[in-house]
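Reposting from the mailing list since nobody answered there.

I have sequence plus structure tokens for a pair of proteins and want to know whether others read the tokens the same way I do. The first protein:
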Amino acid sequence: MQTPADPQDRHEYPSHWEADVVLRDGGTARIRPITVDDADRLVSFYEQVSDESKYYRFFAPYPRLSAKDVHRFTHHDFVDRVGLAATIGGEFIATVRYDRIGPDGTPASAPADEAEVAFLVQDAHQGRGVASALLEHIAAVARERGIRRFAAEVLPANSKMIKVFTDAGYTQQRSFEDGVVRLEFDLEPTDRSLAVQRAREQRAEARSVRRLLAPGSVAVIGVGRAPGGVGRSVLGNLRDAGFTGRLHAVNQAFPDDLKEIDGVPAHRSVRDIDGPVDLAVVAVPAEHVPEVVTECGEHGVQGLVVLAAGYAESGPDGRERQRALVRRARTYGMRIIGPNAFGIINTADDVRLNASLAPEMPRPGRIGLFAQSGAIGIALLSRLHRRGGGVTGTTGVSTFVSSGNRADVSGNDVLQYWYDDPETDVVLMYLESIGNPRKFTRLARRTGTAKPLVVVQGAGAPPGHAVRATRLPHATVSALLRQAGVIRVDTITELVDAGLLLARQPLPAGPRVAILGNSESLGLLTYDRCLAEGLRPARPLDLTTRATAGDFHRALAQALADESCDAVVVTAIPTIGEGAVGDAELAEALRSAAEEVPGKPVLVVHVELGGLAEALSAAGRTAPQAGTSAPGTGGGAHLPPLSASLERGDPHRPAERLPTAVPAKLPVSHPYSRLIPAYPAAERAVRALAEAVKYGQWRREAADPGKVPGYDDIDERGAARLIGALLERGEGLTIGVEETCRLLGRYGIDVHRALPAPTPDAAVGAARALGYPVALKATAPHLRHRADLGGVRLDLADEEQLRRAYDELSELYGTPEELRPVVQRMAPRGVDTVVRAVIDPAAGAVVSFGLAGAASQLLGDMAHRLVPVTDRDATSLVRSIRTAPLLFGWRGSAPVDTPALEELLLRVSRLVDDHPEVVAVTLEPVVVARQGVSVLGATVRLAPPPVRDDLGPRTLPAY
């Protein structure tokens, strides 16, 4: 195919096509357009491609590129001829190009919408998913340039390339002619292509994190010769944790004759290390980091943990330094934890990695922990590690990541890893900011269907965090996270409390709670807290202070066997005197009873006295023996080690765990090995249980999320034409009343017309046109939607009443020019509500609902759902506000037509989902009557749609 030899002058260089991507094996590459300056790189790249790959590309032996070929493959107009390259270290590893063609297969320009596409991947990088990533990006470029269909000719023996096309998920056709397979496929994304893209994204990002958390070799760069210092401390932590891989100490100031430091091989540079280095912990000052990154990249290091501060958290200069750090690392295909990071930990026996500033290795367990803040990370690790208020055995930490400024690896990446990590059952995250809320919500929803995700979110982003601006209040973002299955808590104490419950207890099947114990007052306090948290507690069973361990055992076993019970809270106070039950005996009684019915969660609330913590901790330091007798049967009991004792005097200490009795032959993962969490206060136990109940309900509902209904009367194309015509007037505008009614009418939303009434005669004419009875309203900004101020007159049955009302409003509030009166046909009486939709640049499209007036404006009683809203979402949305009883017959009033209201919400959701140019919709008031709804006021704002990176090709955040 011949291409013009003139310079590429049709479009300027499209820098927005540049992107960093994570490849299948977890490494990164940069994708960018090919330009005239790439001739030497292209020739060098082609020389490293095997003869077989060249044959597959050109269908004939093609040992070298001619000058004409080089010109053709580097000169593009970025419209009809486009070439992209994947690069590592600035050198090409793969290329792709398309050429627009007409119906006869010859070169063409728009409006032709088909193009031929061809790839070439260096043999050393085949199998890394490079071609799949390039296909996503070249398809996005083609769609932007008006190309809707790709055609590719492939030799039948080139099975790898055929698989790239067939696995992409696009709608395609295949034919075979003259010994060549011809593939044609539409570029419009499909549900399958999007699913394929996201599955590849998950695998690639998970592997990139796995390479950091499970390295075969680690180099600590910046190890001082004298004890102390950050580098020396990290090296000691790695060594003391028993890291199973190869460990190296690096410092350019080491003397030439220094071979070891603390028993670890010493080197002056990473380049001097014989063999690969998978992870480098960078503990040098910020001004020396660029040099270190270059050395690591040239040596083939896969990832970096940058502990140094002095980056974006320090101001504009530091922010630019951080950008340069990320760009340099990505040039070599490396990923970064940090900068300003606390480090990473992996407790797996075959890894034993403590590449952090934590002086002790946490106990291994099933909790994945992520903290952006180093200080919070220290606090959480300390709480989860200390015996006096931490976790032992199988409820410790699986992996820990403190991302610092999260310039590269973020909570989203780590969530991708934990999603299918078999060593992690519960995810705890402390997030000071969410860089990509739309993606986080999607990942959280998917993760939540497999394992609990508990999150504490700070109210504001600290310096150093790149965060997209959001117009939504913090409470709204929290509500949207809950909708996605996130267990949203307010403090790190609640984070640990909920996490420990979820780590080793089954999810409750409902909100019904049994309460039993030896303290009537503590039982009543627990009962009150259950009511406050929306649970359904039964009256507490008081076993009295004379209760024995056997009494606890029988009462708990009976409660668990009761079908009307979903969870049990045991309250216990220590007793003294003759016959008092011992702490160890009580612990064994509860464990053995819970073992008999393992499908329901059990929590313990106990009040400690002096010495109780020590007694609980020391009560059982021998492993349980098979055949242990239940309390009260006369058999001896050997107790397993207790998980932790309570910290006396600290109201914020995390919950301890009391292990249940485990038969000796059962594996740790067996359900009988569940540990019983114990809490020092009723409110903490009940709050954790309430979160588990809500999460369990979400899990059950997530199995059947509902559907987005279709409506035959929706005119999507007509709405698109109207929107396009309106946007030609400007970049962003609030459209007029008539256009608003026309647009909403395309989606079956009827707005009651409001006719202007600048004079009494005009008001009478409007009323005749609409038909009596009518309403007269002042629409001035200070009176709009303020019926309490008297700017509305309702049920005006004739001309006399209308003129009298007009005069009254003029006398009370000013001239018609000040009032801006309108006349509107009366709607049936009902409940006034408000429906809104907004396209938030961070969270995406959101539909909100509440009652009009003080409930929503003063009390903020609004509920929110992400678009697209399903029928189940609409049903729950209407019922989620605190004032919802007003819709369902509160105090004898007539219930209103909530199905019609739900349909209205679904239609608004469809409008903003189908047309991202509709950036804001407000329907107020919406009167919900006994039969039907009436939309009395509506405003719509249009603007060019915001960029949606979640629907485009896979990319890392730009720097």
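The second protein, same order (residues first, tokens after):
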Amino acid sequence: MKTWFHSWRAAIRIARRDAWRSKGRSALVLAMIALPILGVSALDLTYRSSELSPTERADRSMGTADAIFRDADADGVPILQDPPGEMHTPVKDYKNQTWPSGPTDVTKAIPAGSTVVTDRSGSAKLTTSHGLLSAEVRELKASDPVARGITTLLRGRFPEKNDEVMATSHFLEVSGLSIGSTLSARNFDRTYRIVGSYELPDALAVDQVNALPGAFLTPYAKAVEKSGMPTPGTSTTYLVKKSGGFTWNTVQQINAKGVVVTSRAVMIDPPADSEVPLFQKEGWGTYDSSPAADAAALAAVATVVGLAMLEICLLAGPAFAVGARRSRRQLGLVGANGGARSHIRAIVLSGGLVIGVAAAVVGTVLAVILTLALQPVLEDMMNQRFGAFDVRPLELLGIALLAVLTGLLAAIVPAITASRQTVLASLTGRRGVRRSSRVLPLIGLAAILLGGAIALFGSIATESVVIVGGGSAIAELGVVAMTPALVGLFGRTGRWLPLSPRLALRDAVRNRGRTAPAVAAVLAAVAGTVAVSTFMASSEAQQKAAYEARLPHGAVSAFVMEEGGRDVSAVREAIQRYLPVDVRADVERVSVGKPGCSPWGGGGEGCGRYEVVLPKAHECPLYATSLPGGADPSEKYTPDQRRKLITEDWRCDQSSRGGWMSVDAGLLVGDAKVLQVLGVDDPGAVKALAEGKIVSFSRGEIDKNGTVGIKQVTDIPAADRASEKGLPSPGKVSSIPAYLVPKGHKSYGVQLLMTPATAKAAGLSTLPAGAYFSTERMPDTEARQKLDGELAKLGSNAELHVEEGFVNEDSLFVIALAVFAGLVTIGAAGIATGLAQADAEADLKTLAAVGAPPRVRRTLSGFQCGVVAAMGVVLGSAAGVLPAIGLRLTEAREATNFYEQAIAQGWDNGLSGPPYVPIVIPWETLAGLLIAVPLGAALLAALVTRSRGAVARREAT
């Protein structure tokens, strides 16, 4: 024990001294190991600090209260809820009955003697320095002790009067206002002074204004209603504080009154699932992940960590080999003085241990410091404040041990190699030639075959991405194991190369112990990059094929559906002013009821909706009017009959001739300019509009008389009751002569188009909806920014769309991956080149002594680096394509199965159709990796290598 301890102690001291002497190499290896440790440790600290305890969550949601009471909107019937109060449902089963809906008086459920604070929220368009801004308005007495913790006052004070408010810091930032400024709202004649700035710890980026209870929302609602607009909706909760709090049993008693309760006591100590009646009800329950999913996730994480450690070991291993090679005389002296091979291995392994421990300490300390320093930035990115700064020593220790393990693993092969050198060879500097292992390539070949078979099975016989990924990882490890043999095969191409690259290739092949790890490191990095690039290029091709343009290329649309189209005119003028408009086509929408009603029906008293009547003979049997009791009409057909209906019956064709729009049923009111902007070149359609007909892009809505019926529904509750019984909605039907546009014309979501005169003649009221614009050229970024600024000043929720065609948003990610692979390639090749120079120093001295030009040293160094990079890139490119192909085959199988199931069930095929899952090879990325990266590595190595070395007597060999 004593001998073992002292030998390792001496080995560690020698390794520490060598690491300090070779500061550059030590710093390089330390950085390679410490950077991942820093990232993972910082991620752990950030996650744990942002993970709030139940007490912290309760403080942020309810202050110091014991519970939050809110209406379940179930007409006061008894309900069942989950412990957090996020899900609830009536106790009674209402399968064949009207679902209970309506408010209840929450205050009657609050126990007597409780302290209650009302928390009411709504929204309004508030005036700012730039125009109008939609923001949340909250009426909560934030200064009340019960509400302490919900908001954090940053500057100023809490509101004390009805004409005072405070605003979140984010609202002040985007609005241009400050403490002391005044604000109001559209349709509101009252003004309020901002007296404070605050933040919500769980929502830092929210735009919110806080007022005293009753100071804003009630008078604002009256003003809006007076202007003819619908009353804005609000939600009210109650913060309740009671001695003893609210247990789970108490919560269930309050649920019997139709009230949902979020209890502090239940949040801190939740009941078991077996004690929650909601979870015992059919269709309800916890949604925890399954053990299989957890195991798959754990396997994926382990695979990623293992591959990352392998990459670091492959990169750092040659660096340790460089140190061992340059210290071979010292190691020879150890052997000459009685040191055993185990002592030599201990010295080299201690180098990995020292660097690993140092990397663990540096990475962990830097992670703590950086997380603390960047805490405000991290909180802004996560949109929430941390709880307590949570340091979990065991987790950080486990991450740090990975650094130590990585350092030891990286030094194993150099340690074994160094220990096999004879004392004489170490002292004289003779390298010797050692035959490569014949077993390792066989193991690698077996791993390739096994991994390939697993990946092939996963992509063809199953739909499991985990199986494909696992098989690909095993195959890649097999390729890494076969790298020495593959390097030997590359050596056979040297006969066709010029002198310098032939020497470099011969040197790399003869010294596979240092070449193979560097080539394997490049292989691993390039394989990952090629795999991801291939997968993303294939996905991009699939998305491009599935992309459906909403407008002709370069065209612009703008719709304003709120407040009866009040801002439509201003939005039209703004677009005309800032964009290169060629043709402008104004459009309107049909409205039933008051101007301020919702465009999709509802909105309260005096509001209605319209329906485009579908003739009974044109109804698809699979999508027929719902049967009484909610029965599915498609259930009476067999899967084969459903398949035939959905693929052959024109009535079941739900495709829309391209595009999508927000106007209900695609019914627009406009003139022939709409057809011009949409690119519909049909003189018959233009003539039909002029004759007072309605233009239809679908034959389904046209009845046997050649007309389209538009029903005005004014009694929405009666219409809903009729729908539940499977009956048509009651209402007045206006029949309009129709013209059917021939097939082949894309309508971009427009299904029906008529002129304002036709709508008026049919007794239909209309409101401004928006406009379509054709442009002289594609609007540039500057014009778009100016337009966005102008629309922001209007404060209008304008649905603006500029048709730019398919835009790939992942191209920067692919470029970043290629750059990463290039850096890893250059780094690994550089390390191998340094080791090659250490080995070939005697040859370089001989070349200089016999009169070789100085550039030979630089040229040879460049080709040595380029050869390693080229071999790694070629092997990595071949190894990376196969996993991507396997994953795409898995996706194709999954998409095909889903499509077949959809057809068999009779689901809508308008947005699906036969799946298209292409496999695309990213030739540009491969060309960059195969040509630019090795060439760049060679040039860089040549530039940083000194042309002249010290001429010295060559040692006897």
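Reply #1 (J.P.):
I read it the same way you do. The CA atoms of residues 399 and 760 lie 73 Å apart.
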